[in-house]
Design goal:
The protein is α/β, with parallel strands linked by helices and 200 residues long. 32% of the residues lie in helices and 21% in strands. The protein has five helices and ten strands. It starts with 9 loop residues before the first strand and ends in a 5-residue tail after the last helix.
């Protein structure tokens, strides 16, 4: 399994997730069960079917004091017990207001197969190894229009650099075996890396 190496001190949390250590290793993070003040990025893994444990919520609240940048990863989407939208609603209720830069599109069997970028309205198809990027259909654009408006309003209100400043909390769908969300998560890690004083 390929892993991501980074100069960023990343801690990953998720008491209720069945594989937090595997996800942590994949993205070069350290799994922890307590808030780490020295974290430069905190990643919270949410399994839609498992909910969010009180211990995980307490860690999120503790990191508020340090204004730590935080990213939510929603995994186990292939299980179809609960979906990305359910996890986002829950995270927004128990953490802080979460934003969704990407939404999940499903195939005829109900499995995640593509992501639509709410910023550009481009679709990335993960149903094969090519990961073809194309402009979304008019039908999809209509379906996501309200979500897109809400997302853009949050981004504008938060301001430039809000994620690295710990003011904007993106939720990203992840299915490692299909590469869904993998490069997006790495791009957020790079954003933190570039924002560090040593990178300027």
């Amino acid at each position: 399994m390929p892993t991501h190496s980074s100069n960023v001190r990343i801690h990953l949390y998720g008491h209720e997730s069945s594989d937090p250590r595997d996800v942590a290793a994949y993205f070069g993070a350290t799994y922890s069960e307590s808030a780490i003040a020295e974290s430069e990025l905190a990643i919270f893994v949410v399994d839609p079917s498992a909910g969010i444990a009180p211990e995980t919520i307490a860690i999120w609240q503790a990191l508020d004091e340090y204004q730590t940048p935080r990213l939510i990863i929603v995994n186990h989407l292939e299980n179809q017990i609960a979906d990305f939208d359910d996890a986002v609603m829950l995270a927004s209720r128990v953490f802080d207001q979460v934003v969704t830069p990407y939404l999940v599109l499903h195939d005829d069997l109900g499995l995640p197969c593509a992501l639509i970028d709410l910023g550009t309205l481009q679709t990335t198809d993960y149903s094969n190894d090519i990961h073809e990027v194309s402009q979304s259909s008019e039908e999809h654009q209509i379906l996501v229009s309200e979500f897109r408006t809400e997302y853009l309003e949050h981004v504008e209100a938060a301001g430039e650099g809000a994620f690295a400043a710990g003011l904007l909390f993106p939720a990203i769908p992840l299915w490692i075996e299909r590469n869904i969300g993998v490069e997006i998560i790495r791009s957020y890690i790079r954003e933190i890396e570039e924002a560090l004083p040593s990178s300027s």
